[in-house]
Amino acid sequence: MTVIIIKHIDIEGPGTIGEFLYEKGVPCKIIDVSAGEPLPKSLEGVSGAIVLGGPMNVYEEDKYPFLRKEDIFLKEVFQKGLPTLGFCLGAQLIAKAKGAKVTQNPVKEIGWFTVSLDREVLPDPLFQGFPVTFDVFQWHGDTFEIPDKATRLAGSTLCPNQAFRADGNVYGLQFHIEVTDEMIQQWIDAYREEIDSLKGFVDPEKIVSDSRLKADNYRKHARIFASNFLKLINAI
Predict the structure, then answer these.
(1) Which domain holds residue 139?
(2) Whose CA is closest to 39, among 53, 26, 29, 54?
(3) Coil/strand/helix, residue 14
(4) Which of 48, 24, 53, 20 is nearest to 226 (CA)?
(5) CB–CB of 142/102 below 8 Å?
(6) Are the C-beta atoms of 24 and 68 separated by less than 8 Å?
(7) Which residues contact 204 (CB under 8 A, 6 or more apart)?
(8) Which of 60, 91, 160, 228 is most solvent-facing, going by the fewest CB within 10 Å?
(9) How far apart are CA 216 and CA 54, in angstroms?
(10) Residue 107: phi, psi to the nearest 5?
């Protein structure tokens, strides 16, 4: 049973969750839709799906035709009841496929920020072992509404909707819990123009120093998170 990992740009890979699944011997197939790689025509033998981030907007389907195909694919994944996880753009695509709106957030979140789990929905299977408040890496300008019949799981001061659960095993996370130190540096280099446009609000040197300070806790949480998602996959 294979986990499908959908990639939208070369530098935004599966990171820590990919490393964990590989370590545990879970077969994964990374599909880079931006490179023209096709999504599966059948979900036979698929045990779950992970949808990664990217710099595009969910509504830029004319510019990025793969987004339209991805929307159809995700709805098929939901229908089959497969565990599904989206980070950042991936979460927004899941929200859109579930009929929720994706809009511009009042401010961009780039760097390390604190998010808080909603106490009334704890414990949640994906966040078992987490403290109520923890630090995550962010890089987004858009946000999603919580889909109908879904449950909000986490929020923050600058972006109220940070995570949701739908259908019991479909999750969207606005934040990143899969990034590695290497990925963070790659993003700083690749998205330098965006950082420069936010001078005074975003400091790349602080991002790097914060990454070092928060590394141990972050890696611990990333591993717990990946283990929890594997349990969801094994439950089907």
Answers:
(1) 2-234
(2) 29
(3) coil
(4) 20
(5) yes
(6) no
(7) 188, 192, 195
(8) 60
(9) 26
(10) -140, 155
8 is catalytic: no
Domain CATH code at residue 157: 3.40.50.880
CB atoms within 10 A of CB 233: 18
Q: Is 221 a catalytic residue?
A: no
CA separation, residue 93 to residues 47, 73, 129, 151, 207 (Å):
19, 11, 27, 17, 26
pLDDT digits (tens, 9 = 90+) for 97-129: 999 999 999 999 999 999 999 998 888 999 999
153 in helix, strand or coil? strand
Q: Of 8, 12, 70, 88, which is the active-site residue? A: 88
pLDDT at site 235: 86
- Torsion, Cα 33 112 142 145, to 10 degrees, reads 100
Q: Are 103 and 143 contacting, i.e. CB atoms less than 8 angstroms apart? A: yes
**pLDDT tens-digit map of 197-220:** 999 999 999 999 999 999 999 999
Q: How many CA atoms lie within 13 A of 189 on its CB side?
A: 8
What is the distance between the alpha carbons of residues 190 and 232, in angstroms, rounded to a whole number? 34
Q: How far is Cα of residue 98 from the mean position of the Cα atoms in its chain?
A: 16
Q: How many domains are there within the chain?
A: 1
User: Is this structure's pTM higher than 0.90?
Assistant: yes
Which candidate, 172, 33, 11, 12, places its Cα nearest to that of 92?
A: 172
- Catalytic-role residue among 12, 70, 109, 176: 176
CB 62, CB 16: distance < 8 Å = no
